[in-house]
């Protein structure tokens, strides 16, 4: 009796497993996200914003293989030499060899993230899933002033005798906990982003 060849499951596609880590802050802020291999950079930006807890209120750029990608800005395009990210698929930008890239958010505070391409695997979920599998610690509040100012903010809100303690606690929402990370809330935010 002849064996049947296996049928091809047309509902299967590939996904990237990416680990994004915010550099120069303590405690270390990181997330592990799963995204479709066909993800375009503007959508990846929204995923990083939702996963990390940023509010998408500042400019950003990706630096992949030495090429800088961002939203077009006619005032600075020629000076910054950015490539328009709107039609760029992550898989194409990475090419065959890239295993990591940079993501910079808020050019004033200069939040620099490194993104590691940890794995590529089959994603049998339909529609394609965007999800966070793991992570740790809270992102700094928006407009915290960068890594150095963020460290000062944490020291001030941890010390009730610090002269700026009350003002900075109030500014940061009253209950800011740098060690807080809620995986379920993160995935609820990501569920609003369609692949």
What does this entry look like structurally?
The protein is an alpha+beta fold and 195 residues long. The chain has one domain: Roll (Structural Genomics Hypothetical 15.5 Kd Protein In mrcA-pckA Intergenic Region, Chain A). 25% of the residues lie in helices and 28% in strands. The protein has six helices and eight strands, in the order ββαββαβαβββααα. Strands 5-4-3-6-7-1-2-8 form an eight-stranded mixed beta sheet. Helix 1 runs antiparallel to helix 6 and helix 4 crosses helix 5. The longest helix has 12 residues. The termini are far apart. The N terminus is likely disordered.
Could you name the key traits of this structure?
single chain; 195 residues; alpha+beta; Structural Genomics Hypothetical 15.5 Kd Protein In mrcA-pckA Intergenic Region, Chain A; eight-stranded mixed beta sheet; 6 helices; 28% strand; globular; disordered N terminus
Task: Calculate the mean pLDDT score and round it.
Answer: 88
For the termini, the CA-CA separation is 44 Å
CATH-assigned fold name: Structural Genomics Hypothetical 15.5 Kd Protein In mrcA-pckA Intergenic Region, Chain A
Number of extended strands: 8
Radius of gyration, in angstroms, nearest whole number: 19 Å
CATH class (first level) name: Alpha Beta
């Amino acid at each position: 009796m002849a064996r049947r060849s296996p049928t091809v499951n047309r509902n299967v596609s590939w996904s990237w497993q990416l680990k994004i880590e915010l550099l120069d802050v303590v405690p270390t802020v990181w997330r592990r996200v799963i995204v479709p291999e066909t993800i375009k950079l503007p959508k990846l930006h929204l995923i990083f914003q939702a996963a990390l807890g940023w509010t998408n209120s500042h400019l950003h750029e990706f630096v992949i293989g030495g090429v800088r990608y961002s939203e077009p800005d006619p005032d600075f395009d020629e000076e910054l030499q950015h490539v328009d990210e709107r039609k760029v698929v992550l898989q194409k930008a990475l090419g065959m060899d890239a295993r990591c890239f940079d993501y910079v958010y808020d050019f004033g505070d200069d939040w620099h993230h490194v993104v590691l391409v940890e794995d590529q695997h089959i994603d049998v979920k339909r529609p394609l899933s965007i999800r966070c599998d793991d992570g740790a610690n809270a992102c700094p509040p928006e407009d915290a002033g960068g890594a150095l100012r963020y460290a000062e903010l944490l020291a001030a809100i941890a010390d009730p005798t610090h002269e700026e303690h009350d003002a900075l606690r109030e500014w940061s929402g009253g209950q800011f906990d740098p060690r807080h990370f809620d995986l379920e809330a993160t995935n609820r935010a990501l569920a609003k982003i369609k692949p």
